[in-house]
């Protein structure tokens, strides 16, 4: 019995060592260039303070985690990930709702995320984010233009980030 077990272990080892025998871990799907944002950034906020944002890869590189400190005592999280041929995001807002958006294109320097739906929203007119245009300028600069829906009107909040680390 011990001999049979030993032979089985040797055979399994040979199969795993053979070319093509053991599957290589799959490379994480591309985030269309958004992975270049990994690091720390800051920007003047529309209210006059300084917004800080940190990006890190998560879930084996398949998601980009954005942590935003607004500079006015609020913080939010946005998670970017692949969705078929495009990219999707869920924004965990300090207003305690979660808009989801999708960008059809995953290449280039501009990502236009359009509203898909929102969870935890009291009414359709309750304040929430409706879209995000994210523009990669160069390795040390990017822009975010968030469209905020409130009382039937759309308000643009623009941030011009510069890399800190």
How would you sum up this structure, described in words?
This protein is mainly β. The protein has a single domain, classed as Lipocalin. The chain contains 1 helix and 10 strands. It has one helix at 2-17, and strands at residues 39-44, 50-58, 63-69, 75-83, 86-92, 98-103, 110-119, 128-138, 141-150, 153-163. A 10-stranded antiparallel β-barrel has the order 1-2-3-4-5-6-7-8-9-10. The longest helix has 16 residues, at 2-17. The termini are far apart. Mean pLDDT is 84; it is low at 3-21.
Brief write-up:
This protein has 165 residues and is mostly beta strands.
C-alpha geometry:
globular
Oligomer: single chain
Helix and strand content put the structural class at: mainly beta
| Domain unit count | 1
Which residue ranges are poorly predicted, with pLDDT under 50 across at least 5 consecutive positions? 3-21
Strands of the widest sheet, in order across it, are 1-2-3-4-5-6-7-8-9-10
Helix share, percent:
under 10%
Alpha plus pi helix count: 1
**Through-space gap between termini:** 59 Å
Strand portion, in percent? over 45%
Q: How many beta-strand runs?
A: 10
Major beta-sheet overview: 10 strands, antiparallel, barrel
Give the full name of the CATH homologous superfamily: Calycin beta-barrel core domain
Corresponding CATH architecture? Beta Barrel
Average pLDDT, rounded to a whole number, is 84
Write the H/E string, N to C. HEEEEEEEEEE
Under the CATH scheme, which class?
A: Mainly Beta
